[in-house]
Every structure is written in structure tokens, then in C-alpha cells.
UniProtKB/TrEMBL annotation:
It is an enzyme of class 3 (hydrolase). HAMAP family: A_deaminase. The lineage of its organism: Bacteria, Bacillati, Actinomycetota, Actinomycetes, Propionibacteriales. This is Adenosine deaminase. Keywords: Hydrolase, Metal-binding, Nucleotide metabolism, Zinc. The active site is at E223 (proton donor). The gene is add. Residues 30-372 form the Adenosine deaminase domain. Catalyzes the hydrolytic deamination of adenosine and 2-deoxyadenosine.
Length: 380
């Protein structure tokens, strides 16, 4: 981990930043979210309701205590322990109506936070315990996204990424489903779960299938394991984007820091240079990284260095429930820590929209018609 000796203003999310755009401005700013887990973003009250419906036992029985429980239990400093908390979300997402409700509320909550485009991921294989087929899982989620977008006055577009779990027996079934549903809301394929011990090459067959079908790939890599995981994801598996990718910082050396704390130059190893030169998007999730131990504080999070060095950085929530966060909160924390203003927020948002798996013409329209005009308006 590099440290630039920046003042550590806070070391956790949830505290009020002391500088940066006002919270209501960050909330109304159009934002783009590429890395958000459906089963990591439930409303605490919905977990409680659905658990009562299906007889799932929870560690607490009211919404407020459950919200606190997720935040605290996920604050474990280890990805493996962080992932254990998902038992209480996945456990209540086993029927069509439950999945539709969670997806509808996800779209509504993101739209209320100013997100105009989101790619939301989940692992269909985790939702078949009560007999749903994998395709039925995707269809139930699609229904929810459509309802949520309609309830939000069409202010948000939501697409799915289908995830395979790394620790499961490798198969290409989920990749095949992503391709089968690509004209019905699904825009790509991902792998998630414990990184250390489960290299992405285990799923090479699925990634090769995606590429043969001209599909899109993002891979959780460089979160709980370092450069070899990123190298395999990019150079062997053909990842279009990296989920987290935060450990690419291990291949960045001799950063020169200016008086204002910004980084003016650094030496890049071959892999970091490749990732930057090829504009491979990094789906960075600062608060989540503090909880899993991938970073020590927001002020010391490598996103500051990587943004200053012009990597294709994007800002994301990962798991809004476990991190008690939102897109506007992630931006508030970052703007406070690094002194970023709306120009940086716009750059990060355009980065994300350029990096999305939507067709080019749709991406271009979102940038020109929705994102840029809002920021131009703020400047004038
Ligand atoms: O940050 C993360 N790293 C790796 N895996 C994750 C992360 N967040 C969530 N999941 C895993 O992805 C599954 C599908 O959404 C979740 O059930 C969780 O196990
Ligand atoms: Zn994730």
C-alpha cells in the first residue's frame, strides 16, 4: 500500500466530509454506477420483511438493527468474512416476487440518489434454492428493474451483469445465460467471491465463450489478491474492465507528490502501464475496500493516486447495504479527502459512462444529453 502522507481526515465512511461540493449537489449530479451487487444493496427493512415471509432467521428483527448489523459485520477487514454477511440477503431472495421487489427497490433507490445509468450484478446460481431456474431468476430481476425505472419517471436506465461465483465448480452456464439474455437487459459477465486461491483462469472456458460471442467481461480482480490476479484477468481471460483493481497500485512506484497532495508523476511497471495505456476501466469501491482491508482509509485509498495519474478510474458502491453507502456518499467522502470538486466528479462520471457495456450510440447520448449539460449548467 502506498502512503502519501496526506492528512488523515477520517478513516471511515459515514463521517461528514469537511470540504467538497455540498451533499445535495452531489446527490442531484447525474452519476453512473458500474459495480453494485443486487444482493448487497437491499433496504434493511426489506430484508426484515422478506425474512418474515420465508421464515429465514436473522440476527436482529428490526430494520435499524439489521442495517447496523450488516455494516458492523462487514467491517471485518477480510473479504472472506465480509462475504459471510450475504447469507442474510441471498437467503431471502429465493422467489420470483422477492427478486422482483429487491430489483425494483434497487432501481428506485439508485434513481433517488441521482444515478442515471447502472449496471447491477448478481449471481443467478445463488437464487435457485427453492426451485427457480437460472433464467427465471434473471427474468424476475428484469421485471423489477423495469418497474423501478418506470416508478422513477424513467430517470434511470438499469442493466444486469451476471456473475459466477469463483469458489463454485467452474462452468460456462452463467456466461451462456448472459448471452441468451443480452437483448433483454443483460450486458455482461463477471466472476466474484473469494479471490485468493481461486484464480480467474478457472473460468477460462466461460471467458473464451463470452469473447467468441462478442460479449463483455468484467472480473473482480486485484481486491484481495495482487498483480498476478489482475494480470490473469486482463491478459489470459480478456477482461474489458476490472472490478476493484485497486492492487494495480503495487505496480506504481516513486510517486511525486505536490504541496497540495496531488500526484504529479510516477513510474509504472509493465502491467500498470498496459492497464493505463489501454484505458482499462477500474471499478473502484472505496468504502468496501476499507471494510475488506484492501485499503486503510479514504485519504490513503489508491484512487487518489490512480486518478491523478489518469488511469480510467470510476467510482462505485459495491454493496450499499453492507457499507451503508450510496454513490453520492462515495463521492462526498472522496471529494472531502482529496479536495475534489465537481470537475473531478464529472470526469469520473464520463469515465464510467464511456466504460459501460451499453452500445456506443447509447453511451454517447447519455454523455452528451444527460451528463455534460448538467455539469455545464453548474459551471455557468
Ligand atoms: O467486493 C466483493 N468481492 C468479491 N465478491 C463480492 C464482493 N461483493 C459481493 N461479492 C459476492 O458477489 C455475489 C454476487 O453478487 C455476492 O453474493 C457476494 O458473495
Ligand atoms: Zn463487487
Amino acid at each position: 500500500m502506498v502512503s502519501f502522507g496526506l492528512p488523515q481526515q477520517w478513516n471511515n465512511a459515514g463521517m461528514e466530509p469537511t470540504r467538497g461540493p455540498a451533499p445535495d449537489v452531489l446527490k442531484s449530479a447525474p452519476k453512473v454506477l458500474l459495480h453494485d451487487h443486487l444482493d448487497g444493496g437491499l433496504r434493511p427493512g426489506t430484508v426484515v420483511d422478506l425474512a418474515a415471509d420465508c421464515g429465514h432467521e436473522l440476527p436482529a428483527d428490526d430494520a435499524e438493527s439489521m442495517g447496523r448489523w450488516f455494516r458492523e459485520a462487514a467491517d471485518s477487514g477480510s473479504l472472506v468474512r465480509y462475504l459471510e454477511t450475504f447469507e442474510h440477503t441471498v437467503g431471502v431472495m429465493q422467489t420470483g416476487p422477492a427478486l422482483t421487489r429487491v430489483a425494483r427497490e434497487c432501481a428506485e433507490d439508485l434513481a433517488a440518489d441521482g444515478v442515471v445509468y447502472a449496471e447491477v450484478r448478481y449471481a443467478p446460481e445463488l437464487h435457485v434454492r427453492q426451485g427457480l431456474t437460472l433464467a427465471e431468476v434473471v427474468d424476475a430481476v428484469q421485471e423489477g428493474f423495469q418497474e423501478g425505472a418506470a416508478n422513477s419517471g424513467g430517470r434511470i436506465v438499469v442493466r444486469h451483469l451476471l456473475t459466477s461465483m469463483r469458489q463454485a465448480a467452474p462452468s460456462r452456464e452463467i456466461a451462456e445465460l448472459a448471452i441468451a439474455r443480452r437483448d433483454r437487459g443483460v450486458v455482461g459477465f463477471d466472476i466474484a467471491g473469494p479471490e485468493d486461491g481461486y484464480p480467474p483462469t478457472r473460468f477460462l472456458d466461460a471467458f473464451e465463450y463470452m469473447r467468441r460471442e462478442n460479449g463483455h467481461i468484467t472480473i473482480h480482480a486485484g481486491e484481495a489478491f495482487g498483480l498476478p490476479s489482475i494480470w490473469e484477468a486482463v491478459q489470459v481471460c480478456g477482461a474489458d474492465r476490472l472490478g476493484h483493481g485497486v492492487r494495480i497500485v503495487d505496480d506504481v512506484f516513486d510517486a511525486v507528490v505536490a504541496d497540495d497532495g496531488s500526484v504529479t508523476s510516477a513510474k509504472l511497471g509493465r502491467l500498470a502501464a498496459y492497464v493505463r495505456d489501454r484505458r482499462i476501466p477500474l471499478e473502484m469501491c472505496p468504502t468496501s475496500n476499507l471494510q475488506t482491508g484492501a485499503a486503510t482509509s479514504i485519504a490513503e485509498h489508491p484512487i487518489g493516486l490512480l486518478a491523478d495519474l489518469q488511469f480510467r478510474v470510476t467510482v462505485n458502491t459495491d454493496n450499499r447495504l453492507m457499507s451503508a453507502t450510496s454513490m453520492s456518499n462515495e463521492f462526498a467522502q472522496l471529494c472531502g479527502a482529496f479536495g475534489w470538486g465537481l470537475d473531478r466528479v464529472e470526469w469520473l462520471t464520463v469515465n464510467a459512462m464511456k466504460s459501460s457495456f451499453l452500445p456506443y450510440d447509447e453511451r454517447y447520448r447519455m454523455i452528451m444529453d444527460v451528463i455534460k449539460p448538467w455539469y455545464a449548467d453548474q459551471r455557468s
